[in-house]
């Protein structure tokens, strides 16, 4: 992926801004049969046709299994994608998540002004801090008036989210279903897995996915440290355990497990399914109750007992575990796939090799949702909906085009200059204030990510080779893109039941025999009903 400004500027937790000047927002009603958002028994709108729109020729080409196009250097042949300004000069309001600080007012913000000019609109971006996103979005859904564009997702599933969208938002099926999407080449360039992962609501298409690669959580690895103790890249379970034991000593540890641990990398390595298993009869059962998953818990519990796991992990957040890894206190920890770009910058000066750990031999890798979030539109007349789709299309201009460069680097001479090889170098204005972290238009719509770590061609090539090996064994979550009202309403609580149990087994030494009772309770509390609902929707979507 290209380094985004959030990664480059290191603004995690740098501040927050509440919605300001936002109108009151409309609540979800039950009119129009919107309470029925399932796809069972419905006529299904076709997903958009995939029409690749590639900018400069990649140094290392991607493939149809999800391997990304890779660029070892910033392209020298930047050309326009040919997208004209889609707007009609009107004001467009949009609500998105933010990980930055409040943007300066548009009258003083040259980046915002340039985006408005390129889009042909007056964009009023209403940003919600990540820490308050779920709460603020729920408030928005319960109000009386909507912005034109709304972003959902970002790791949060809101109660009755699909019902709200079906009731209050525009059905865009006629504009993007099948070949109709070809009128919007930037949107047609979004891969099929992102659309399918977003799925339908009541058989219809409502959203535009903000694409992310098929690869899910990965093991961030200090390759230099583990090679010193003889670890091979193509390790098995025992090779992994031995490597973590080998690098442990003094105040250094093999593995960093954070509080509420994500253990998908280890479970996939031992062959567990991705969240759910689907039988030949179409029945859903939780992969968290499988023997492979229990074996994962036992393995991690024993590693903690043996002292090869960071001892304070149960009270260390996932964000703080990055720091523990960066200062080489631990040699490995699980992070999201996109965390690599952050870590490349963090460890560059320390002269050790950052790598992804391959899944254990014979195991699998759990796939991602295929999106960070998604965008929906307030109901409006067809002409305005088409204009808003044009805005999303422009913002999805592919990597290496002048449109993409404006969106990601700003205005040349103001927000960036070029190095001798043509690579954009941010100015202080961009670094300190006017950028896509503080004006996060990339969460309205964006191009599919590519592999490009500016200034680190070796890192780009390393991740590309990892993707080539992992893509064939990456398995999807079968519930991705289908609907379960029980899971929408109770999924967070059900997941916490499991996470608390994992913490007890791994960090507090609770016996694995207690886990069957946890799974039984999980089923009684809604897991079994959710499985039935997913099974019905899964059958309807095939």
Summarize the structure.
This protein is an alpha/beta fold. It is 36% helix and 12% strand.
Your description of this structure?
It is a single chain. With 542 residues, the chain is of the alpha/beta class. It folds into two domains: 5-18 and 46-68 and 84-212 and 371-447, Periplasmic binding protein-like II (D-Maltodextrin-Binding Protein, domain 2, 3-Layer(aba) Sandwich), CATH 3.40.190; 218-366 and 482-541, D-Maltodextrin-Binding Protein, domain 2 (3-Layer(aba) Sandwich), CATH 3.40.190. The protein has 19 helices and 15 strands. It has helices at 5-9, 110-119, 133-141, 161-168, 173-176, 185-188, 192-198, 223-228, 237-246, 264-269, 291-305, 318-326, 339-347, 382-395, 402-409, 428-432, 457-470, 485-508, 515-541; strands at residues 91-98, 122-129, 149-153, 208-211, 218-222, 253-256, 276-278, 284-286, 330-335, 354-357, 365-366, 371-377, 416-418, 424-426, 474-475. The strands form five sheets. Strands 2-1-3-12-4 form a five-stranded mixed β-sheet, sandwiched between helices. Strands 6-9-5-10 form a four-stranded mixed β-sheet. It has a two-stranded antiparallel ribbon with strand order 7-8. Helix 11 packs parallel to helix 18 and helix 18 packs antiparallel against helix 19 (515-541). Residues 1-34 have low confidence and may be disordered.
């Amino acid at each position: 992926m290209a380094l985004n400004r959030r990664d480059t500027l290191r603004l995690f937790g740098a501040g927050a801004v509440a919605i300001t000047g936002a109108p009151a927002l409309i609540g979800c009603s039950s009119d129009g049969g919107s309470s029925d958002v399932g796809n069972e028994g419905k006529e299904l709108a076709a997903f958009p046709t995939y029409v690749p729109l590639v900018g400069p020729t990649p140094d290392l080409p991607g493939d149809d299994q999800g391997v990304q196009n890779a660029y070892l250097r910033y392209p020298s042949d930047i050309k326009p994608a040919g997208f004209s300004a889609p707007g009609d000069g009107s004001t467009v309001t949009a609500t998105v998540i933010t990980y930055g600080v409040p943007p300066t007012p548009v009258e003083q913000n040259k980046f915002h002004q340039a985006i408005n000019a390129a889009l042909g609109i007056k964009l009023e971006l209403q940003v919600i801090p990540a820490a308050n996103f779920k709460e603020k979005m729920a408030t928005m859904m319960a109000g009386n008036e909507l912005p034109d564009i709304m972003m959902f997702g970002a790791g949060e599933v809101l109660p009755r989210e699909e019902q709200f969208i079906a009731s209050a938002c525009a059905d865009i099926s006629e504009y993007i279903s099948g070949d109709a999407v070809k009128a919007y080449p930037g949107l047609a360039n979004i891969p099929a897995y992102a659309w399918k992962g977003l799925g339908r609501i009541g058989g219809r298409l409502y959203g535009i996915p903000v694409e992310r690669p098929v690869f899910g959580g990965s093991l961030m690895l200090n390759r230099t440290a583990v090679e010193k103790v003889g670890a091979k890249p193509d390790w098995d379970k025992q090779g992994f355990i031995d490597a973590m034991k080998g690098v442990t000593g003094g105040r250094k540890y093999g593995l960093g497990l954070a509080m509420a641990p994500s253990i998908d990398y280890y479970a996939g390595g031992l062959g567990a399914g991705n969240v759910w298993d689907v039988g030949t009869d179409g029945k859903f059962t939780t992969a968290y109750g499988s023997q492979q998953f229990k074996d994962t818990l036992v393995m991690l519990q024993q590693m903690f007992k043996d002292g090869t796991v960071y001892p304070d992990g149960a009270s260390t957040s996932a964000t703080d575990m990055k720091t523990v890894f960066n200062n080489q206190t631990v040699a490995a920890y699980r992070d999201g796939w996109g965390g690599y770009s952050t870590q490349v910058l963090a460890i560059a000066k320390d002269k050790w090799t950052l790598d992804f750990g391959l899944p254990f031999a014979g195991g699998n890798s759990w796939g991602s949702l295929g999106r960070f979030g998604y965008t929906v539109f307030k109901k409006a007349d067809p002409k305005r909906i088409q204009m808003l789709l044009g805005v999303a299309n422009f913002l999805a201009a592919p990597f290496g085009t002048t449109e993409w460069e404006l969106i990601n680097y700003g205005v040349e001479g103001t927000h960036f200059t070029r190095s001798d090889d043509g690579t954009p170098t941010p100015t202080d204005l961009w670094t300190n204030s006017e950028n896509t972290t503080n004006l996060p238009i990339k969460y309205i719509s964006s191009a599919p990510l590519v592999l490009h770590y500016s200034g680190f061609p070796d890192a780009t090539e390393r991740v590309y080779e990892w993707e080539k090996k992992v893509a064939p064994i990456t398995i999807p979550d079968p519930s991705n893109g289908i609907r379960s009202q029980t899971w929408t309403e109770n999924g967070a609580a059900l997941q916490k039941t499991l996470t608390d149990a994992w913490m007890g087994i791994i960090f507090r030494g609770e016996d694995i025999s207690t886990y069957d009772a946890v799974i039984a309770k999980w089923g009684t509390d809604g897991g079994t009903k959710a499985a039935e609902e997913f099974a019905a929707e899964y059958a309807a979507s095939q």
